[in-house]
What we know:
The chain is α+β, with helices and mostly antiparallel strands. Helix content is 42%, strand content 14%. A four-stranded antiparallel sheet has the order 1-2-4-3.
Amino acid sequence: MDLQEAVLNRRSIHDFKEDNVEQSTLKEVFAKSSLAPTHRMKQPWNILMFQDNGKEDYADSVLESYEREGFFSSSDWERAEKMKTGIRKFLVQIPHHALVYMEKDKDAHKYEEDYAAVCAFIQNAQLLAWEKGIGVLWMTSPYLDDPLFADAIGLDPSLHKLVAVLQMGYPRQIPKAKPRVPIDEKYELRSNHFKKYSIKEKS
Ligand SMILES: Cc1cc2nc3c(=O)[nH]c(=O)nc-3n(C[C@H](O)[C@H](O)[C@H](O)COP(=O)(O)O)c2cc1C
């Protein structure tokens, strides 16, 4: 698969087959993704991979966070329990949840650089996975900002920024492409002097 094909055909996957992806394949994807650009060679990405029995505690931690956020508060006990069972089942049937996190740099500029590098790493991973027939859904759910969720999965919310969860597995269904805004609406060409002094000079 060439790069253009991967970029144009990759889709966010919401429906996965049950089969796990081989650990070595996942590691290969992330190892190659590490060639992402990174200022000062910080390579700020880290991955916590939840699969098999690890997904059970992960799903519990997500549900506890939803509970804290009041997600179930408008439902009676029975309905809330039904919703929890449904969410738990949904989460556990996804083969892999790769939580991507970074250390929080105290310097705001460096923090942004690190976040940008982690996002480049994630997009590399999405494309490299796609090339191997593996689907990914890049997620930024509110529990990633819940300090008690970070704590529950063994991270330190004062030190770690939880950037994303990548749901991963072999796609059962591939959605249709969502059309993008034409680039002419986003692209402005400035090939002549445009600052005031140069405009004055011209007149
Ligand atoms: C930073 C980021 C966060 C995202 N979070 C979610 C999410 O929480 N839930 C979700 O369904 N999709 C999420 N997505 C995926 C987008 O919904 C998806 O990329 C978009 O709909 C376009 O679809 P495509 O990736 O198939 O082209 C996220 C994407 C990015 C870049």
